[in-house]
Specification:
The chain is an alpha/beta fold and 223 residues long. The chain has 9 helices and 11 strands.
Length: 223
């Protein structure tokens, strides 16, 4: 059974070898490519005691822009983003208990920290984190530091199962592939994008390698 992974390299890094151990054929077709906005102005972020990150791409963009993490308290969505911040020399103050923006917002608000809050983000960032913080009364500084570009799907490739980890990936997924593959969504925002397209799918019970593996195994059993 062939499984297509559409996330960028580094995200859910352990998923591919674990699928292969279970006898799946794995192909990797990242549907979205990220690139740093070289002229992004980071100056507004410097007034913020906290910077909150919802993606590894945002961390990599700030590293490319030579941002200084040393005097900031940093919050991350999930383990992969936290690891990227640590590798960049940042001091982690908060890691969300679940790998989604809503969880990061809940955890940050519960701490009662002072603002303003800096949000380095992509050009297609969902408003989940910003809206939750704004509703809690936090002043925000949002700076777009990277852009997303859709990548083409290889012609004639139709996997049995396709894993999707972001609304941007759902947007880039060709209709023919979507109709001929069982779809697994990572997280509520990705599932919402699939529902908006009217595509049947299975949602991983948690935004983790283990959650995705469980969803894929369930699909194998019902195939």
């Amino acid at each position: 059974m062939k499984v297509a992974l559409t996330q960028s390299a580094g995200r859910l890094a352990e998923l591919e070898p674990m699928l292969k151990e279970r006898g799946f054929e794995v192909c990797r077709f990242p549907l979205v490519e990220t690139s740093t906005i070289e002229n992004a102005d980071l100056q507004p972020l410097f007034s913020c005691p906290w910077w909150l990150f919802t993606s590894v791409a945002a961390v990599k963009a700030l590293v490319g822009l030579k941002a200084d993490f040393s005097n900031r308290r940093l919050g991350a969505v999930g383990g992969a983003t936290a690891k990227a911040l640590q590798e960049a020399g940042g001091k982690l103050g908060l890691v969300s208990p679940r790998a989604d923006a809503a969880s990061l917002a809940e955890a940050f608000i519960a701490r009662g920290e002072a603002g303003p809050v800096g949000l380095p983000q992509g050009d297609r960032a969902l408003p989940t984190l910003a809206d939750a913080l704004a509703c809690a009364g936090y002043p925000l500084v949002k700076v777009t530091v990277y852009r997303n570009t859709s990548r083409p799907w290889p012609q004639g490739v139709f996997p049995n199962i396709t894993v999707l980890t972001s609304p941007s990936a759902v947007e880039a997924l060709p209709q023919e592939v979507a109709e001929r593959s069982s779809l697994v969504a990572l997280g509520p925002s990705t599932a919402g994008a699939l529902r908006a397209r009217g595509l049947p799918h299975q949602v991983a019970n948690e935004a983790s390698v283990e959650g995705v593996l469980q969803a894929i195994e369930q699909l194998r059993q019902t195939a």
